[in-house]
Specification:
Layout: E1 4-9, H1 12-34, E2 37-41, H2 45-56, E3 68-72, E4 74-76, H3 86-93, H4 119-133, E5 146-150, E6 173-176, E7 186-189, H5 191-194, E8 199-204, H6 210-217, E9 235-241
Parallel strand pairs: 1-9, 2-3, 2-5, 5-8, 8-9
Antiparallel strand pairs: 4-7, 6-7
The structure holds the ligand O=C1O[C@H](COP(=O)(O)O)[C@@H](O)[C@H](O)[C@H]1O.
Length: 256
């Protein structure tokens, strides 16, 4: 498992541009090595800015988007097309604007979809979809080149919230009820599933994230602060703006 590293950028715009540039390079590298790339998207404000920034980079045209698998780390359990869904936001900002193969886009279930309005059924269906994409002879998950996460003010990542029963779920995908952040019903990859990704990038901007980011990097417990329990297989990278990095120990920072 990887040590965490931290890159700090001056503000939210530069952070979004830098994450977008890293993402495009990551996709190109993965396609050069394996012929395809697999990424896991997150929701939230900075994620939307990253998605928009990808399109502004001329190099995004060098990616073969038809050979990119898109997964989600969590989803708000709402009808398809609801503006609050992470999928809807990602489609509007990026996915509908690049030539993806629809068969390689794997949104988490919606309440009005074929798996129905029971989040446990939806979570089980997503786990099956992940398992179908797993490499033969490997665990129940596909290879993820990079998995991106936002970080909540309370330290949540994906829809793994502090002190929530989701921490006891050992399956890769869990239904979440009673989320402290609306909407209350969600589906999420669990921390063990998140930590199978080759690289995990935690992206946070703004002063309201500084306390959670600082505590996670100072070694808080993952049940109290889920972001502290995230570790990519070969890399765990915190990508922050200056405001979100205010409480990061100086020895961990590199200002870009
Ligand atoms: O509800 C959610 O929030 C988090 C963080 O969002 P932000 O707007 O504070 O950056 C996000 O990472 C997660 O995917 C989403 O479902």
């Amino acid at each position: 498992m990887s040590e965490a590293s931290v890159a700090v950028h001056a503000d939210a715009d530069l952070l979004a541009q830098a994450v977008a540039a890293r993402l495009v390079v990551k996709l190109l590298d993965a396609q050069a090595e394996r012929g395809a790339a697999s990424i896991v998207l997150t929701g939230g404000r900075i994620a939307a800015a990253v998605h928009r920034a990808v399109l502004t980079l001329p190099a995004h045209d060098a990616v073969d988007w038809s050979r990119v698998d898109i997964w989600w780390g969590d989803e708000r359990f709402l009808p398809a097309g609801d503006p609050e869904r992470n999928e809807t936001q990602a489609r509007a900002a990026l996915l509908d604007l690049v030539p993806l193969d629809p068969a390689r886009v794997h949104p988490m279930p919606a309440t009005d979809g074929p798996t129905g309005d029971d989040p446990e059924t939806g979570a089980a269906a997503y786990a099956e979809e992940l398992a179908r994409a797993a490499r033969p002879g490997h665990a129940a998950l596909p290879h993820f080149d990079v998995l991106m996460l936002g970080v909540g003010e309370d330290g949540h990542v994906a829809s793994v919230f502090p002190e929530h029963p989701v921490h006891h779920d050992t399956r890769p995908v869990s239904a979440v009820r009673g989320s402290p952040k609306p909407p209350p019903v969600r589906t999420t990859l669990t921390l063990p599933a998140i930590n199978t990704a080759e690289e995990v990038w935690l992206v946070a901007s703004g002063a309201d994230k500084a306390r959670a980011v600082g505590m996670a990097l100072a070694g808080a417990g993952p049940k109290q602060l889920p972001a502290a329990g995230v570790q990519g297989v070969s890399r765990t990278l915190w990508l922050l703006d200056r405001a979100a990095a205010a409480d990061v120990p100086a020895r961990l920072r590199s200002l870009r």
